[in-house]
């Protein structure tokens, strides 16, 4: 074998050839890294999620059972989630967690794949949370409800009279002025304001907005803050406020051990039912794994883990969720038939009404 | 001494054009910076401008996103709130930072200055979000301040400090005093002691020397810090979001609100461009002072 002295001894080589050689090596290494990366990516499941799906206690059993890595990216708000998808390459994402009412938006954009109903435990779901009007489009199921709960009145039962919490009127009266926080999401709280003035959340129109705005302003006048999830939860937990408008089990259940005084009510006027769904992307390169993931999340074990996720608790959509008795008690599992009968659906406005609702919310926030 | 050299115009007078390689070198050196600016400022800005002129439903070009800002009082109010908060924060930060920087530069012995400066900027080392949440706990109804006030008998009821504009201002001032201290300190250190000696020789007292000599000469440092404070403060989302309790909206919050659920990037872009126009006006108004020269 002959040895090229230029290669064996870099010091004797011309600078240009050294540079070329280094560039070749760098290119080869980069290509190798990219190839390894894309191979790893092909075996992974990429999920656009809400924070409750980031809990390792939820993901690990699936990863170990299927030998895959679940890469998650959290987002808040359907608009932000859709923007991530639009900025990605087709096939980058496999599954998405989404507000059930927003599934038609994804279908309209051609993002989602129909789900095989025969391979999902639809018969085990609470009938009221199937949300077929949103999750089924043109006869095809594009999403399955995985978790639900209520935007209602969350409160500290040692600080307020629980009997007062049986009516939404308590939120606008003088008794609890300065002791109230409002959850900063316009759709559910506008739904609660609608309930307070005797409107049905599914029938809201632009003509209802002035009365809703008036009700919101009364709530704001009583409120100490209007906070997103963490801020409103912290305010209730630390005693900064005693009542959270829009709160529910998603705020109180996760804190039950540390703060058993926190509770929620479904007032006489009703509450707003929230629900989140799982959808599969049409361009997913791992549709089999994606379906397995959805099946796992919808299984009794997955449902129990999702319901009690570290980020926030919520009711599992599957009635057979493997929850302990204590967990069921915290979630008030046995009271669900009554709660569901009294709850009204999340407002699902069209784009124009949605914009007008957000403007009403903006005006409420700016009101002094 | 050659007068041309003094005026700084003497060097390339060789009568010969630079060789081609020599002419290309400055461009080669400046290309990475130009490329960076083009890629990460000009192109995104053009894209944002384009987006701001499109309808959310994709129906074509429109000025509706801009007209919405000027016709909806709630949107307009967000700008008023932002300007008020930014002005308050900038003034308070300057008033606190100047004496602090003065003490560091003039009263602290030279060998301790580095340590003192490091201690002064220590809060920079913690996460911005964590720092804001920490303030929330300090200012809360059951927080340190309220406990001290009610415990000492000064107040019978806790004050509402958290979730107010005051809380937002406190959070901002805590951060920007450090930034301003650094810029003013640097300016004070550049100031030759001869100026003060000369003023004293001419009979000026300490107050007069400060007002007529030191302050005017350190004005560029103050203005640079104040401008940075203005730019960073008016565009900040985290502090008002965590500490303000959403009891009023500032412009960055209004921008974010358009994106969360509705994904209305055209309106968010229009609001961002309006915000940027305000920053540009602030720059133009203060440009004459934004030049630090060695004193």
From TrEMBL, chain A:
Leader peptide range in chain numbering: 1-42
InterPro entries the UniProt entry points to: SBP, Sperm_putr-bd
GO MF annotation terms: polyamine binding
SUPFAM superfamilies, per database record: Periplasmic binding protein-like II
Keyword Transcription regulation recorded: no
GO biological process, one term: polyamine transport
CC per GO annotation: periplasmic space
Localization of this protein: Periplasm
CDD domains with a match to the protein in the record: PBP2_PotD_PotF_like
Domain of life: Bacteria
Keywords: Periplasm, Signal, Transport
Entry-linked PANTHER family: SPERMIDINE/PUTRESCINE-BINDING PERIPLASMIC PROTEIN, SPERMIDINE_PUTRESCINE-BINDING PERIPLASMIC PROTEIN
Protein name as annotated: Spermidine/putrescine transport system substrate-binding protein
Organism listed in the record: Mesorhizobium muleiense
Higher taxonomy: Bacteria, Pseudomonadati, Pseudomonadota, Alphaproteobacteria, Hyphomicrobiales
TrEMBL record, chain B:
One GO-annotated biological process of the protein: transmembrane transport
GO cellular component term, pick one: plasma membrane
Cellular location(s): Cell membrane
Transmembrane segments: 24-47, 83-104, 116-136, 166-188, 209-238, 265-285
Domain ABC transmembrane type-1 intervals: 79-286
Classification via Gene3D superfamilies: MetI-like (1.10.3720.10)
Membrane topology (UniProt): Multi-pass membrane protein
Family matches, as InterPro entries: MetI-like (IPR000515), MetI-like_sf (IPR035906)
Superkingdom as given in the UniProt entry: Bacteria
Pfam families in the cross-refs: BPD_transp_1
Primary subcellular site in the record, as a coarse category: membrane
SUPFAM superfamilies (alphabetical): MetI-like (SSF161098)
Keywords for this protein: Cell membrane, Membrane, Transmembrane, Transmembrane helix, Transport
Family: Belongs to the binding-protein-dependent transport system permease family. CysTW subfamily.
Protein name: Spermidine/putrescine transport system permease protein
Lineage, highest ranks first: Bacteria, Pseudomonadati, Pseudomonadota, Alphaproteobacteria, Hyphomicrobiales
């Amino acid at each position: 074998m002959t040895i090229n002295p230029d290669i064996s001894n870099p010091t004797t080589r011309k600078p240009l050839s050294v540079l070329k050689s280094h560039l070749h090596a760098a290119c080869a290494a980069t290509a190798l890294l990219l190839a390894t990366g894309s191979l790893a990516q092909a075996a992974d499941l990429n999920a656009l999620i809400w924070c409750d799906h980031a809990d390792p206690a939820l993901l690990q059993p699936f990863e170990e059972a299927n030998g895959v890595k679940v890469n998650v990216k959290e987002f808040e708000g359907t608009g932000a989630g859709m923007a991530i998808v639009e900025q990605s390459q087709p096939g980058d994402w496999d599954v998405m967690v989404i507000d059930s009412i927003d599934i038609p938006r994804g279908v309209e954009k051609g993002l989602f794949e129909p789900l095989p109903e025969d391979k999902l435990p639809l018969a085990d779901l609470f009938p009221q949370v199937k949300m077929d009007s949103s999750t089924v489009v043109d006869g095809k199921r594009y999403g399955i409800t995985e978790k639900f709960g209520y935007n209602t009145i969350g409160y500290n039962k040692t600080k307020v009279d629980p009997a007062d919490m049986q009516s939404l009127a308590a939120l606008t009266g003088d008794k609890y002025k300065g002791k109230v926080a409002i959850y900063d999401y316009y759709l559910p709280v506008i739904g609660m304001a609608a309930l307070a003035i005797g409107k049905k959340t599914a029938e809201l129109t632009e003509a209802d907005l002035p009365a809703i705005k008036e009700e919101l302003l009364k709530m704001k006048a009583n409120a100490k803050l209007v906070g997103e999830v963490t801020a409103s939860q912290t305010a209730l937990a630390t005693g900064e406020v005693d009542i959270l408008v829009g709160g529910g089990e998603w705020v109180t259940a996760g804190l039950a051990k540390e703060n058993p005084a926190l509770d929620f009510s479904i007032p006489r006027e009703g509450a707003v039912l929230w629900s989140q769904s799982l959808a599969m992307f049409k361009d997913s390169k791992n549709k089999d794994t994606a379906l397995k993931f959805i099946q796992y999340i919808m299984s009794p074990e997955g449902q129990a883990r999702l319901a009690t996720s570290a980020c926030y608790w919520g009711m599992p959509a599957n009635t057979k969720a493997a929850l302990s008795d204590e967990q069921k008690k915290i979630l008030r599992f046995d009271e669900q038939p009554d709660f569901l009968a009294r709850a009204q659906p999340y407002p699902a406005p069209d784009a124009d009404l949605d914009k007008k609702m957000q403007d009403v919310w903006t005006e409420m926030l700016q009101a002094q | 001494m050659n007068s041309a050299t003094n005026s700084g115009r003497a060097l390339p007078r060789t009568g010969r054009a630079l060789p081609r390689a020599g002419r290309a070198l400055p461009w080669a050196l400046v290309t990475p910076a130009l490329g960076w600016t083009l890629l990460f400022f000009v192109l995104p800005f053009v894209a944002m401008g384009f987006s701001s002129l499109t309808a959310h439903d994709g129906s074509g070009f429109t000025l509706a996103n801009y007209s919405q800002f000027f016709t909806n009082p709630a949107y307009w109010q967000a700008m008023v709130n932002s300007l008020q908060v930014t002005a308050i924060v900038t003034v308070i930060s300057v008033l606190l930072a100047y004496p602090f920087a003065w003490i560091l530069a003039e009263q602290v012995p030279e060998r301790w200055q580095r340590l003192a400066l490091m201690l002064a900027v220590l809060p920079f080392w913690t996460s911005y979000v964590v720092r804001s949440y920490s303030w929330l706990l300090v200012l809360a109804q059951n927080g340190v301040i309220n406990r001290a006030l009610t415990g000492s008998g000064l107040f019978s009821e806790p004050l509402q400090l958290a979730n107010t504009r005051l809380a937002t201002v406190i959070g901002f001032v805590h951060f920007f005093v450090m930034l301003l201290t650094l810029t003013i300190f640097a300016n004070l250190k550049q100031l030759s002691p001869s100026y003060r000696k000369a003023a004293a020789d001419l009979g000026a007292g300490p107050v007069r020397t400060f007002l007529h000599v030191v302050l005017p000469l350190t004005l560029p440092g103050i203005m640079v810090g104040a401008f940075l404070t203005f730019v960073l403060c008016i565009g900040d989302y985290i502090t008002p979001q965590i500490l303000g309790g959403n009891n009023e909206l500032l412009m960055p919050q209004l921008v974010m609100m358009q994106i969360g659920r509705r994904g209305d990037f055209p309106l968010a872009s229009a609001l961002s461009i309006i915000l940027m126009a305000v920053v540009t006006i602030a720059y133009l108004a203060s440009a004459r002072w934004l030049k630090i020269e060695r004193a």
